[in-house]
Description:
The protein has 180 residues and is of the alpha+beta class. Helix content is 38%, strand content 30%. The radius of gyration is 16 Å and the shape is globular.
Amino acid sequence: MQLTAPSVTFRPVGPDDAAAVHEIYCAAPSYFDVLSIPLPTVREVRTELETAAADPRRSTELVLVGDALEPDLAARPRVAGYLDVTLDYLEPDDATVNLLLVREDLQGRGIGSEAIRRLEDRLAGRVERVLASVYGKNPRAQRFWRSLGYAFAIDAAPVLEWYAKRLYAQAADDAERLLV
């Protein structure tokens, strides 16, 4: 169990980073097993990153982690995962997490949770709602999103479910606590 939140930062990626994103995919093969699809090739990842780069609403980033308990990681952040987010999708003032993928050898350490908390902080005041798409039958992903306060929102079975969290409600709750 993670006792302290890991130090999570982000680095934007583009088509020239396809090999780095592919490496994350290779380090998380269970995700592709859940989807029953083959692991994408580096060329396919590059094409996906080119598509993302052509969409001004879309942001693709590496999730980097440094850990005060591991001085080597604190000094030189390690690539821990990949984050793909689209603004103004599904609706205006929404942000959709298309994919958050953490390397399997680093899962269960709070990296994904901290990445989403930091994403929510960055999006606060810019969007009203954050959605997360969950592909396939993925109870682990469902538990992850629920643990962060996301609720089931849309059933697009058999392939996709959406979970959502309103950010402005959280900000209003925080403001109300300050007034009490």
